[in-house]
Amino acid sequence: MTTTEGTPPQTVTVTIDGREIHAQPGALVIKVAEDNGIYIPRFCWHERMKPVGMCRMCLVQIEGAKGLPPACTTPVTDGMVVETRNPAVKKVQDGVLEFLLINHPLDCPVCDRGGECPLQDQTLAFGPGESRFVEEKRHFEKPVPISELVLLDRERCIQCGRCTRFADEIAGDPLIDFGERGGEMQVITYPDEPFRSYFSGNTVQICPVGALTSKPYRFKARPWDLASVETTCVNCAVGCRGALQSSTNRLVRLLGVDSEPVNHGWLCDKGRYGFEYVHAPDRVRNPMVRKEGELVETSWPEALDAAADGLRRALDLHGPEAVGVIGGARGTNEDAYVWARFAKGVLRTDNVDCQLGDGIPADVILGAPRATIADCDRAAAVIVLAPDLKEELPVLFLRIKRAAVDLGVPLIDVAPRAHGLSRYATALVRHAPGEAANAARKLANALTGSVTGDKAIDEAAAVVRDRAGDVVVVLGRPSLAESPQSIVDAAAALLGAPNVRFLSALRRGNVHGALDLGLAPGFLPGRVALDDGRDWFVSAWGGAPARRGLDALGMLDAARSGRLHALVLLGADPVGDFPDRSLARQAVAGAGFTIAVGSFLNDSTRHADVFLPVSLWGEKLGTYTNLEGRVQRAGQKVSPEGTTMPDWRVAVELAARFDDDFDLESAEEVQDEMARLAAAHAGVDASLIVRARDGVVLPLAEHRDELVLSPRRIPVTDASWEPIIPGSIPDEGLTATRLTDVLEATGTGATTTVKPAVEPVGDEIDEAAVVEQAVSDAQDLTAAAPDMYRWTPAPDGHAVPPRDAYALRLVAARKLYDKGDMVVRSPSIAALATAPILLVNPADRDRIGVRDGDDVRATTNRGSLVLELRGDATTAAGLAFLAFTQSGPGPADLIDATAAVTDLRVETLK
Amino acid sequence: MADVGETRIITRRMHERPDDSWTIEASLGSGGYDGLRKALTMTGEQIGQEQVKASGLRGRGGAGFPTATKWSFLPKGVYPRYLVVNADEGEPSTFKDRMLIERDPHQLIEGIVIAAFAIGCNLAFVYVRGEFALGYDRLRQAVDDARAKGFLGTDILGSGFDLDIVLHRGAGAYICGEETGLLESLEGERGMPRIRPPFPAIEGLYAKPTVVNNVETLATLPHIILMGGEEYAKLGVGRSTGTRLFSLSGHVNRPGNYEVELGNTFRDLIFSPQLGGGIRNGGSVKFFIPGGASSQWLTGSDEHLDAPLDMDAVSALGVMLGSGAVMVYDETTSPALVAWRLAKFFAHESCGKCTPCREGTGWLEKVLYRLSHGLGRPEDLDLLLDVGDNISPGLNAPFSQTTICPLGPSAVSAVVSLNKYFRDEVLAGIAAAEVPA
Fold first, then answer.
1. pLDDT digits over B366-402, tens only?
2. A128-132, A376-380, B200-204: which range is least confident on average?
3. For A346-361, what is each residue's pLDDT tens digit?
4. Residue B404 at interface with chain A, using a CB cutoff of 8 Å
5. Cβ-defined contact of A96 to B366 (cutoff 8 Å)
6. Using a CB-CB distance cutoff of 8 angstroms, which residues of chain A are in contact with residue B370?
7. Whole-number pLDDT of residue A481
8. In angstroms, what separates the C-alpha of A218 from chain B's closest C-alpha?
9. In angstroms, what CA-CA distances link B332 with A738, B288, B328?
């Protein structure tokens, strides 16, 4: 942990088991002991939650204290003398374990936790050898589902309250609690209200016994058969750290790893369970080319030749401006960089966009001052001008909720309607669709000190002005039914307020890495504008685009009108993802030669002339960049399915067919090239990436203080139910409390010394020297390379047409579970996606003359849909909300991507 | 044995006006709120640290903690602060607070206003046991009447002091009589005890400084003010001053609530014709539980029967006066059966929060059930003691505990007493019940 600047931290001295220890005052005995290698057994205590002292496993003796206080609720004080291993403590530990076991069913052989169970481990290490309990154990119905994903076995439960506290304190979804009392006390859900939390899987991970199991993992493996690798989740752009586990070459489980700057150990359920698509039966495993109208399997050489030929033909006949690349926001940084090099350096087209009209122009994301996730914790205020983070970036939602609720950071919610964070907000600023800029302008004025006359805004601004620190604006697209220009203008307005920094709320897994590395029109790798970097990359690559190209909307429009003669879909599905489906459909049909680089046949890739299947997350090594610009590693855990290869290697192979030898053989070599050529990545080479415990925030020179290097370290508890320390995951699996240490420590209950809790493994490195070298490399390159882009907002030219009295203005935003390729092929979560329902204000519902649940016809200039309608008080009058889903009828059928806003007419069906 | 009678201070009105003692008219017609009038002429400090301190008043809920000292723990200058009245009388065979609430609610309200004035609190809460339907109705009426007469509300009796009372009904959980469990329940949470520290005086209700006092304790305050603390302290013996209301039950001829000056003996209480009136059918005391179900037991020996009703003296015998419930058992009683029935109560009422109590009370109950129903094993008594030792290390009184609150250790008292006084009887019973091989 970093200490606060200036004043050296005051410490107290405590003696634990005879060892003198210096600790922060107020730190808990259990934590101080653990940090110094003395493991005090526990079940209920979890470092990320408030202590409750329920399980009584951590009772210790403290000189002068009455009885045996719990180590988890007792803060250290100067001169405190603690005994954790003496006979009195051992007697109590035996007693508590015996108590916990008397009613615990010994069905360990069929329990998911068996083998990684702290009740087993601590019984072995601290407990009595046998039970004296001869009565009948208590019985409950064996596992009952408490949600679609989680099952509860009340017989196994030891009532530690970790799950109920997580649901309430961390997730803000208090849907489970204790019912009954005494021996009958049990975790319950409320009647007719299942534990339907987006974060439910965390309770399974932190459950210290097998009381909570998850449907996706249940009975899939024994813990000792699992192999693990540390990785980064790419279901969204938060970049949660995880431990990816496989058994018999199949991915079976993802556990949250406790990264201090990012996810605190938590994952959302989509991230945790949404990897099943990797093994989907309908995955494209071998390359295909179109022959006589049909896509048929073929060899890689033939498919690559066909792809290169098609591209060459388009280039030769129509020039680089007739070639486009859409996608790349789900691959690794290495994929993005090599594809950028191929598209911009070899094909020399700037028609490249990793976003699908659902994002924010690269200029803003790359060129505005940036904040990190942790900056929210110490911000003067967090302004959320984004879609519902709970739906799109769930763990960022947890972090911002924590900042607001636990750390007292004022939260200002700017949105067209209430969302997950609204209940924690200090101030609510509501605006009509397309008019975020007006609200932002008002807010910026208030923050600058003007009185706007809007009471909520003025009061919130006064609070913010009294606080030190930056104002973090979480910036995203609150609605896909409005032009991104409204958000660009809002960002411009807020940039006018003092100390504003932005945290991007773009959603797609590696969209920030792809933008950084040049998969956007007008940019080259390293956050460098095309015009600024052209010479640098021409000399490095041998070529670069002559002029700025088209974004996704522009490319689709060109394709529709026959001006795009070759189109590469880099893991993209415009028909599913582009907000304006009729445009996307016509574009895909109208594009010339089409290459799909991807994994699944969908409404877009079905039209391809060549299909090049690539390996997916979990099957390849690489790095991803999260929404704060943090480059983190993802590991390979299983071998790629079929003959698939990483996207970047496909680009290398295609380049070779244009007589350009990229000379890149591994992901590490690509990383080294990025570190040499991409300004934002300066210094971030393979050797630094592998050592950076929490990844590297770009650019390194600005964020050197956040860089923590550590050799691999193994904590005393590398158990899955405890916070998993980054860099601590052994390849052979993450199974159990390290009993050797614990046993050695306890023996017969006599006091002995124990090993340090965190034990360095491998060669010690001189951390300071490595950081110094990396930073110095970075500075050298930054001096030589073109400057990184800084955004200067253009004058506001955005106009929103008036809404006529009969129309409703549409708000369309994503839900966590949608109908995307990955979700529909992950059976555990696929069923959680719901059909879109048109939500309108109850007054509008009544005016239309229908009841909740009635079908209505919604019509725009783009199309017409029959939808179920419901009244919803959080939707203001004049608005209509519709969840965005990829496949099936939805808002994409109604949105005109070329318009500022989408208005719809609602008619009853008669 | 002297013919000891009651010393009626807090029960005077209900005996004098049995037909309407709970009404505002009866109260005002018999000196009601005179104590408050007098108290309002003093300062809070004078009430607490002079009068109440001089009276030697100790809490009547069970722990017997000096009331003035408890009040003095409130941190200076931290407001708001709350007075919470523990009217969740749930200790088995304790029924004194119920009578005080039902028969003389104004006496309690007067005590609340005096205490609140003394500690500087403007909002008091009364947590009334859910089963006290009549008591709740009468208390609610009394609060309304007191407010109408200016004893509650703003500017009470022109003193400038404001106080209102919130009545809250419990839902039937013994644990909510434990002060921090009560506070949790009052806040709308599941009734489970809190980890201490922080103590309620520092962080109690809604994390504000809070005094939790028992009904009888508060009902005594008006009389201390009227009599003067020093005068009150002349009643009683040693550090056990004044009177206490004892709930006498079991095999006595005249069960009921008796207000007795402290210092009299258990023999007085059980046998005096004006009090317990002796054992039914002319029998003798086999054993008795002197201070509610949580206490260890005493026997019918002269040493025990002649022990004075004095919190410190009984403490020396390893028992407590506790809530003032005295349960008397004659020679026909099976101690193992009593122990089992008590264990069943505690197992039923354990809140489940901490492991030793949740699991341990249930285990004790199961073993005691066997033991008292002809299914005992010779090793069971020692097993019970060791299980008890894991809940309450050392098996002493006052207890030490591995639990969060005293509920778990309370369940151990019966086991310890059973072994201490009736080990041979229990073992003989086991042997007799054993089916010969």
1. 999 999 999 999 999 999 999 999 999 999 877 889 9
2. A128-132
3. 999 999 999 999 999 9
4. yes
5. no
6. 135
7. 95
8. 28
9. 58, 13, 12
B402 touches chain A (CB under 8 A): yes
Structural domains in chain B plus CATH codes: 12-233 (3.40.50.11540), 236-330 (3.10.20.600), 335-433 (1.20.1440.230)
Query: Is domain A364-459+471-500 given the CATH code 1.10.390 in the classification?
Result: no
Place of tokens 């030669």: A593
How far apart CA B28 and CA B149 sit, in angstroms, is: 10
> Does residue A131 belong to the interface with chain B, where contact is any CB pair within 8 Å?
no
The architecture (CATH level 2) of A808-908 comes to: Beta Barrel (2.40)
Which of B355, B391, B392, B410 to probe the A interface (max A CBs under 10 A)? B355
Asked if A56's CB is within 8 angstroms of B402's CB, the reply is yes
> pLDDT for A257-299, tens place per residue?
999 999 999 999 999 999 999 999 999 999 999 999 999 999 9
Taking residues B180-203, what's their average pLDDT?
96
A184 contacts in chain B (CB < 8 Å) = 352
Per-residue pLDDT tens over the stretch A534-544:
999 999 999 99
User: Taking Cα atoms as reference points, which of A808, A63, A822, A907 lies closest to residue A508?
Assistant: A822
pLDDT of residue A616: 97
For residue A103, list chain B residues with Cβ-Cβ distance below 8 A. 359, 362
**What is this model's ipTM?**
0.95
Cis amide prior to B197 (ω within 30 degrees) = yes
Asked if B193 is an interface residue toward chain A (Cβ–Cβ < 8 A), one would say no
> Who's near B230: CB < 8 A, 6+ residues apart?
B54, B55
A1 pLDDT higher than 50: no
The yes-or-no verdict on residue B232 having pLDDT over 70 is: yes
The alpha carbon torsion through B234, B237, B240, B241 (nearest 10 deg) reads -10
Interchain contact B371–A (C-beta under 8 A)? no
Pick B362's closest partner by Cβ from A94, A178, A183: A183
B195 vs A185: CB contact, 8 Å cut-off?
no
* Structure confidence by residue, pLDDT tens digits, A47-92: 999 999 999 999 999 999 988 999 999 999 999 999 999 999 999 9
Q: A799: pLDDT confidence band, cut at 50, 70 and 90? A: confident
Sheet holding B298-299, edge to edge: B256-261, B243-250, B325-330, B285-289, B298-299
A859 vs A905: CA distance, rounded Å: 5
Domain covering A300-359+512-702 in this structure, CATH number: 3.40.50.740
DSSP SS3 for B27 = helix
Of B351, B367, B386, Cβ closest to residue A182:
B351
pLDDT of res. A651 = 98
- CA pair distance A436, A414, nearest whole angstrom: 8
Give the closest-approach CA distance of B93 to chain A in angstroms. 21
Choose the mutation target among B196, B203, B390 for the interface with A, i.e. most A CBs under 10 Å: B390
**Can you give the residue ranges of every domain in chain A?**
300-359+512-702, 364-459+471-500, 808-908
Distance from CA of B150 to the nearest CA of A (A): 40
Q: Residue B347 pLDDT more than 90? A: yes
CB neighbour list of residue A569: distance below 8 Å, 6 or more residues apart: A326, A327, A594, A595, A596, A597, A598, A604, A605, A608
CA distances from residue A45 to A288, A783, A819, B154 in whole angstroms, order as listed: 54, 50, 38, 46
Residue A5 has pLDDT above 80, yes or no: no
Q: Are B116 and B122 in contact (CB under 8 A)?
A: yes
Model pLDDT, residue A771:
86
> Do B351 and A92 lie within an 8 Å CB cutoff?
no
A442: pLDDT confidence band, cut at 50, 70 and 90?
very high
Chain B residue with minimal CA distance to A135?
B366
Q: Does A53 touch chain B (CB under 8 A)?
A: yes
